[in-house]
Write a structure and sequence with these properties.
single chain, 238 residues, alpha/beta, Rossmann fold, seven-stranded mixed beta sheet, three-stranded antiparallel beta sheet, 9 helices, 36% helix, globular
Length: 238
Amino acid sequence: MNITTPIARQIEDAVQNIPGWTPIDQLLTLFNLAYASAGLPGDILELGSWCGRSAVALGMAARLAQNTKVHCVDLFPVKNDWFKNADGTYSLSVSINGRQFGAYGEQTVWAEPFERDIAPVYERYPGTLDAFNHTIAANDLGGLVLATKGDLGIFAASTAANFALRMAFIDGDHSEDAVAKDIEIVERYLLPGGWICFDDAFSTYEGVNRAITRCIIDSGKYQLCQQMTRKLFVARRK
């Protein structure tokens, strides 16, 4: 990284060809939180990585801090994991270790964005994990940004007893129960002063909004709760 080149420009250059929906202002906010919390012990966790767009921004910040890893958890679907619903929308179901994990069940993906944004990924890569690994290697983040195929339950089962987080970015299943469960798991590891962040918050996903309101804003466990960009909400644990 060039310490005299604006980080916003570096992030924009790094992600310009990475498929995904995270806007530059949100990526810059994630970078800044990860960078500013470098004085805390603990790693960074991302749930919902797709092809690695936001993982690059988090990895760029983590690279500036010694002994920090970015753990990226995603179902990483291949093309055949997607299926069309009766109404023409799309959902997915991924088999991992003999278990089925579904996504986009409550709020499905409309055909137009699926064909525009998702289907082309599978024209370039066999699966999204291949795309993610390509992204990480192309940005020299190998060994620093680590992928886990699964959900937070699978990830948590593999963590050490002393595992700790200084930041978590949640962009998984958008139903209220799922977001609340993800918060519950993250809270096992999130240090005081650590940040928890949410994509698609207070935009168009009522399940995300309700879970954040109930488990974060009204819980009394967090401070500096703030919507930072159009769809990114952050809070710092007391």
